[in-house]
Specification:
The protein is an alpha/beta fold. The chain folds into 2 domains: 3-111 and 119-132, Alpha-Beta Complex (Conserved hypothetical protein from pyrococcus furiosus pfu- 392566-001, ParB domain); 134-191, Helicase, Ruva Protein, domain 3. Helices cover 38% and strands 15% of the residues. It contains 8 helices and 6 strands; from the N terminus they run ββααββαβαβαααα. The strands form 2 sheets. The chain has a 4-stranded mixed beta sheet, with no helix packed on it. A two-stranded parallel ribbon has the order 2-6. The chain is globular, with a radius of gyration of 18 Å.
Amino acid sequence: MQDAQEPVLKLVRLADLRPTQITVGMREVEEKCRSWRNKGSKAAESLGMHLIPVVVGPKGRCYILDHHHLVLALHREGVEHALASVMADLSGLERDAFWFVLAHKNWMHVYDAEGRLRTHQDIPKSIDGLVDDPYRSLAGELRRIGGFAKDTTLYSEFLWADFLRRNIKRKRVQDRYERALDQALKLAKSRQAEYLPGWCGATGGSD
């Protein structure tokens, strides 16, 4: 058992993939669904450009390490199979040891839609079970409009989602999304956010 030295490609059934997180931003999933439909005849070609990173766990099950939003969107759009890149084969581990390794490598995100820390037992068994966190969608949209830069830090957008959760009321995010996004952009440029990955720096007078 060791981490893969070179990418190992594997054809996987999307419905069989297991999440390593509890939540996604459903607005972001819906946007990816629309984008997929708009590709039309070029959809199949673009699918080959998005390898899904997975780790193989006990009983040979594949666990998603990234692209949960894309996988759920493709599944909703009726795509049955996709190519996965096997990052590590941990199939020889007992279940408890497997989850210990995932935690050690920061390969799972066990926070719920309220930002509360849970355990791996709360992670859904399938992508259909992923729960909506509106702040995760807000963070994704904030990055797209330049609120912060894309960063290699694992789960960076969840860190931003937690920051936004603490500073913007949920009712505003749910009922007045554009206003919430404007507020998020101001917060992102403030000194309050300087500890976050991809922070772009304060602009004049926004401390």
